Amino acid sequence: MMKPLRLPPGFQFTPSDSDLISHYLKKKINGEPLPIVNLIKDRDLYGKETPFQIFESCSSSFDSSVFNKWMYFFTKIKKKFSGNPSAKRIDRIVGNGSWKCSNTTKIYDENNKNLVIGYKTLLNFIVKSPEKENNTNEEKKQTNSWILYEYTLKGSDAIDKDSIWAVCKFRKGGKLRKDSHDNPPPSKRERPPSV
């Protein structure tokens, strides 16, 4: 079991997409020191465990007031056909289901809006049909309500032939809302007056 990270009162970890790639993922891949040690844990998110099992085993080490209901992990994305350098398909089968890609967007450098530094992929967990009957009631309730954002560096697939490092943010529940720190809505005072 992971120990909870002790952080100063009032601290919240709400990095932008660009921060996750530039200050965490890139440093992890290059073996450089991270801004805060053990804030983002290493975990195989594409292994035998279901999202429910990962959440249950890690929830005590992620204070929801610090992480705003998200869990952050470094993980390796595995190619379906390892050993084949031209293989592009990713193996996202986990436990009793798989992560289905909803969309992928480009992430731009904060200082140069024309420079693509990585990609953000939205994934939703889908349970395999034949095994639905074998799920516990709690797992059935949680099915399809798991959300995973997977961040990869531009050109990551050139680094390792069979797997790619990614930083992921993961949570359960509810409808997906746009992250407030990426593009916050204007406050009532900032909105232009109606005509």
Automatic annotation (TrEMBL):
Residue ranges of domain NAC in the record: 7-173
Keywords assigned by UniProt, alphabetized: DNA-binding, Nucleus, Transcription, Transcription regulation
Basic and acidic residues composition-biased segments: 176-195
GO biological process: regulation of DNA-templated transcription; system development
InterPro entries linked to this entry: NAC-dom, NAC_dom_sf
Name under which the protein is recorded: Nac domain-containing protein
PANTHER family for the chain: NAC DOMAIN-CONTAINING PROTEIN, NAC TRANSCRIPTION FACTOR 56
Molecular-function GO terms, alphabetical: DNA binding
Native source species: Thalictrum thalictroides (Rue-anemone)
Domain of life from the UniProt record: Eukaryota
Keyword Methyltransferase: no
Region (Disordered): 175-195
